[in-house]
Structure to design on (578 residues):
């Protein structure tokens, strides 16, 4: 199958409550290879430093739902066979992956390549980007789950690169029986993931790639390397342990076995580029300095 | 004076013998505020992985001279009053600053904001980007110095952010009597630079900003943070110690005293962006994976 591949830009930042996601999405789009099919951008309110509101347990609930509906509308209009999503925060994959599970009639497999499980609920966080995979499986806040027409079956979901999480998250992934391959299990081989794909008879897979699955010593454009963070700001929070070559090998091994129909690249936070952009704007002759 | 400001893109990489400068220049141009005047790009051979030749003491001597002549031609054609240069390696400032010293009739002051003095000769290095300030003062290889119609007088040059260098470089800057303000002298005040500008009666200044003057803990898109370097690869080589706010304050303090007629931003090496670009190209669905 080749089919129509939609490139979908979603510069969403409110799901992680961090303005830098918006610029990170623009730079990610600039860095990406040219699209081979149609390109669409979901309208996202530009950050203006004014902050976001807590709305019944979720920061920016109403604007996130609005953007979610816009993404779903683009997907309905374009009816692609495959979708490349360039985020934005992790939540950007909610509408596209929900669309793909409809498109492939409940048979979509999801490989979640991430240092975090993204199955939190408003009881554990106010940031919707940490809830997205739960929502895709019909778990969590009703405003979000009701927008997933066909929830993805937990047995068709696997994590790659996940190795630790909070007690509440452990409880959830054990309750749902979600498979996982840790970074150490994926150092030399993609076998755990390939075996899972075979075991469920997967034909179509959507891959969520949160860039924070990569070791920040290799890629410093991620959440945990923000240059203004206190040294202990992220104590206890798992940070990525995979290398870029391991991620590339894993995704290509998967693509040899099953059709990759979805790929979301998320959580790009290019701190250096932001530093340089802001500095140039403040200098004489070139900026407003 | 307002006058005509030329934005000059020079994606030169051969002066530092590192292909990444070429991409760094493109990203720098993308990050910069919109130009207020004409924009020109100096044609530079695209890197293709084939390497460069040592030519009588200088790597890529002939192509560097060709690009230097092209830059000078653009400047002659445009005859701007001011120039913003977006590099590329440090050598990109040779033609523009030489042009400005002609334009301002030997009265240009040069502030060299850099962790390195850039006064080497082919006896000390084969990389022309480490020779550029020497060349501007008429020092060094004849092929380069003969292209500087009016050498800049050493008393009209000052360093900011320089704090250590090789014995040969010390000898040169002491022989020429070049002023300098170390990072520690510039922490809270731009006074050493302001006093120098007053002492020489400067009216027009060109500022060379090598991004490696900034502490790599603040800005990791510089030479010394390349992710594939061995831990001891840069032992003994000075790395920047200024902060971004200090650089911004210094340049704006200078601009309050004298007219900034030249600004070159150089040595942008966005390793993370390169990593992500290459990774996306290698992934299934979005790239050639």
């Amino acid at each position: 199958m080749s089919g129509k591949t939609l490139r979908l830009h979603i510069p969403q930042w409110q799901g992680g409550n961090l303005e830098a996601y918006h610029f990170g999405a623009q730079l990610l789009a600039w860095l990406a290879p040219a699209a081979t099919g149609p390109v669409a951008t979901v309208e996202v309110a530009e950050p203006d430093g004014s902050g976001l509101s807590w709305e019944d347990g979720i920061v920016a609930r109403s604007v996130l739902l609005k953007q979610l509906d816009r993404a779903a509308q683009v997907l309905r209009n374009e009816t692609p066979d495959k979708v490349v999503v360039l985020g934005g925060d992790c939540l950007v994959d909610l509408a596209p992956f929900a669309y793909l599970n409809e498109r492939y009639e409940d048979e979509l497999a999801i490989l979640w390549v991430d240092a975090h499980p993204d199955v939190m609920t408003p009881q554990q966080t106010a940031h919707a980007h940490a809830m997205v995979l739960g929502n895709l499986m019909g778990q969590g806040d009703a405003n979000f789950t009701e927008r997933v027409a066909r929830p993805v079956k937990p047995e068709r979901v696997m994590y790659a690169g996940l190795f630790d999480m909070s007690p509440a998250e452990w409880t959830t992934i054990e309750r749902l029986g979600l498979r996982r391959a840790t970074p150490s299990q994926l150092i030399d081989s993609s076998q755990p993931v390939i075996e899972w794909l075979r075991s469920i008879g997967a034909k179509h897979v959507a891959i969520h790639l949160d860039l924070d699955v990569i070791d920040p010593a290799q890629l410093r454009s991620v959440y945990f390397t923000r240059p203004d963070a206190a040294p202990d700001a992220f104590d206890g929070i798992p940070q990525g342990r995979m290398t870029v070559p391991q991620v590339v090998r894993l995704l290509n091994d998967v693509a040899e076995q099953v059709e990759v129909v979805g790929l979301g690249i998320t959580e790009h936070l290019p701190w250096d580029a932001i530093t340089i952009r802001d500095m140039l704007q403040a200098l004489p002759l070139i900026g407003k300095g």
